[in-house]
Design brief:
- This protein folds into two domains: 3-63 and 162-349, 3-Layer(aba) Sandwich (QueA-like), CATH 3.40.1780; 67-148, Thrombin, subunit H (Beta Barrel), CATH 2.40.10.240.
- The two termini are 24 Å apart.
- A nine-stranded mixed β-sheet has the order 2-1-17-16-14-3-12-13-15, covered by helices on one side.
- It is α/β, with parallel strands linked by helices and 350 residues long.
- It has six helices and 17 strands.
- The chain has helices at 144-148, 189-197, 236-247, 257-272, 312-321, 323-335, and strands spanning 27-31, 38-42, 55-59, 61-63, 67-72, 78-88, 91-97, 107-111, 123-129, 134-139, 174-177, 201-207, 230-234, 252-255, 282-286, 301-305, 346-349.
């Protein structure tokens, strides 16, 4: 298995730059793993594929204003930062642009976007260089994000977003992600109500989305890819509900690859602990990389978007439904003009 096995050609005009309105009017490609069939619908029709007793599991993480701007103290050069995760006491892991000029000890002042000089009195300092171009940075103000941060958009989106809430799911609650769990962006309150009335149950986990959601794998052997660790939580209440669903032969439908990773990691944690339960509660950091060959223990269905070539989310979807089937579906999506990536269309795999 090679990373290049997960490559495909995508015309740039199919990378969605703005979200569809209303949210649930995006297109929906429905894949059957059993029959190999592909159907083309709209997202507001998704309830037709759900059964009473199914449980939809959502990621309730909320995107934080993790994008900062600044200027270097020595020469005044512009700085742009994407904060990835807190390390405590005003220290964050971050991607910095331009990164090659940011040696340990470099100081810079925080500025508002578009300002020619800093007026904030807040500064940052590079404490450590880490793998993958990441820096550990200390800020003079622990509340730097709340005061000066902007909601980050992925690097392939070039159109400014007029309403930052459009890059949040309608059920987002727990602050911590630097990228949205995009499979959930298609749901509206009205659609959620319609699905519940059908007898479908809801459950929520938390995984704060990090760098790997939009960073292509750089190594040719994907098993050697260093996953960026992300914080997740799966409560005992949700774990108990999922165990009951699985015992009764009902379906667990994961809303997004982040949810799949939380649930599958919880199952692996139960196995490692020698427990007889199917999955155990989780609270901490996960770096689970799911590649073809993974044996899925919890997920019976998956709602997801169309992912970047050579990316870990694409590899996970291929593991769930089969690489040849998924790449055939992607080829069909390109031919039919589906919209790709964060603001793009959706896929339901059953």
């Amino acid at each position: 298995m090679k990373t290049s096995d997960f490559d495909y050609l995508l015309p740039s005009e199919l990378i969605a730059q703005t979200p569809i309105e209303p949210r649930d009017h995006s297109r929906l490609m429905v894949l059957s793993r059993k029959s190999g069939s592909i159907e083309h619908r709209h997202f507001f029709e998704i309830a037709e594929y759900l059964r009473p007793g199914d449980i939809l599991v959502f990621n309730d993480s909320r995107v934080i204003p993790a994008r900062l701007f600044g200027r270097k103290r020595d020469g005044g050069g512009r700085v742009e930062l994407l904060l990835l995760r807190p390390l405590g006491l005003g220290v964050w892991e971050a991607l910095v642009r331009p990164g090659r000029r940011f040696a340990v000890g470099t100081r810079f002042e925080i500025a508002s976007e578009g300002e020619t000089s800093s007026q904030t009195g807040v500064w940052g300092e590079v404490l450590e260089k880490r793998e993958g171009g990441i820096r550990a940075i200390r800020f003079s103000d622990e509340h730097v994000l709340e005061k000066f941060g902007k909601v980050p958009l992925p690097p392939y989106i070039h159109t400014p977003l007029s309403d930052p809430e459009r890059y949040q799911t309608v059920y987002a609650k727990v602050k911590g992600s630097v990228a949205a769990p995009t499979a959930g962006l298609h749901f509206t309150p009205q659609l959620l109500e319609c699905i519940q009335k059908k007898g479908v149950h809801f459950a929520f986990v938390t995984l704060h989305v990090g760098l790997d959601s939009f960073r292509p794998v750089q190594v040719e052997d994907p098993s050697k890819h260093p996953m960026h660790r992300e914080y997740c939580e799966l409560s005992e209440e949700v774990a108990s509900a999922l165990r009951k669903v699985k015992r009764e032969g009902r379906r667990v439908i994961c809303v997004g690859t982040t949810v799949v990773r939380v649930l599958e990691d919880a199952a692996l944690a139960a196995q490692r602990a020698g427990k007889h339960e199917l999955l155990t509660p989780l609270r901490g950091w996960t770096g689970l990389l799911i590649l073809p060959g993974h044996r899925f223990c919890i997920a019976d269905g998956l709602i997801t978007n169309f992912h970047l070539p050579r990316s870990t989310p694409l590899m996970l979807v291929c593991a769930f439904a089969g690489k040849e089937f998924i790449l055939r579906a992607y080829e069909e999506a390109v031919k039919l003009g589906y919209r790709f990536y964060s603001f793009g269309d959706a896929m339901l795999v059953l």
